[in-house]
Amino acid sequence: MKKIKDDSCSITHHHHQATIEVHREVVSNQEERRFSRLPHQFKMTTRLLKCTTCLLLCCSALDAFQPMSTSRNHRRRAHRLRSSISASATLSSGLGEFAAAYDHYLIDQWGVLFDAKAPYPGSVEGLEKLRADGKNVVLLSNSSKRRRDAVKNLVGKMGLGEPGPEGLYLDIITSGEVGHQYVLAGKHAVIRPGSKVLLCGSGEGDAAYVEEFGCSLASGPEDCDWVLARGNFVVVSSAGEETVPPGTISDDFAAQSAFFRDPVAGPLATAAKRGCPMLVTNPDMIRPGTNSPMPGRIGALYSELGGEVEYIGKPHDAVYDAAFEVLQQAVGTGKTVRKEAVCMVGDAMPTDVLGGKWSGCGGTVLVAHGIHATALGVKEGACELPEDSRLAAFLADEYPVEEHPTHVVPAFRY
Question: How many C-beta atoms lie closer than 10 Å to residue 46's C-beta?
Fold first, then answer.
């Protein structure tokens, strides 16, 4: 079976903007649900504090900023922000310049430590030095694979060794593993063991993944209970048939989207119309280095079709909660992991940096040579710092200052 080709091409502004807006909306809804469960008096106090804080912020910033309600307004005033961006995102030549500021590191895999084939130069040495400094390291990935499969790849292909207190990393958290545990827990009314699944798969271990949490493959969108998006290479049926959507091989998402949307034959349109929820176990929109779409785009498309979508993976809470739990186990019962002492390192603003910010990490690091390399004016996989003006323009175009990374480094090097 063929898969999406890996031709190198630039990642467009539209793709990233779509990713950001989708995840901001989901996180906003999560926060609203949390808030709705709080006692009434606490809600009133919180609202008062929020209003007071907003008033103070508005007064202090009035001379420098104009009100912003949409991304269009944000871009309109981008030039007014650029003079302040250098102070909000510090350019550093390596992790060693700020490593002492944090006790714990959450680190993305692809585009940070490795490309598709091997570790980047200096990345393994960077991990070794962090561990030698006594830092706790957890790898955090939006891979749809189970933990055991991810560890097998780290040990065999990447040469990082087994996880553990004496290793280069304590553990690896994958969105695929956390998603697996989510289904097993049966907390969702529909997404639970014993149900029938319409599977948008990666082409590797798809049927086994479903069987291991006690579900079965549906014959099609007409008889599924819910939809699982762990890849977008194939649509897998109970008969074992794998349908490769049109446009998949050529990276033509317009053709792929038309297939999924088709009101008669399209699997997503039919499932959404029937009210079936979807679980996305990799919220990424675009494969690094290509325009190849990822499961996050299927989730966004399903939302457009009126379907309910649950996301597991960066930038959403569940994977960060799992990572914090590993860190807590590492420090022991007598201590508490302070989130302000945790630093998230990644190459993607919409998932890694924003996820670190939204989960409460004290620091966030953007690795320049990854998914945003073209936008930052550096070569993908190289060790080049972007020009300050180029970084400023990139951040100002899409992100308010509070979402900027704490540090920017050319590559994962100490």
Answer: 12
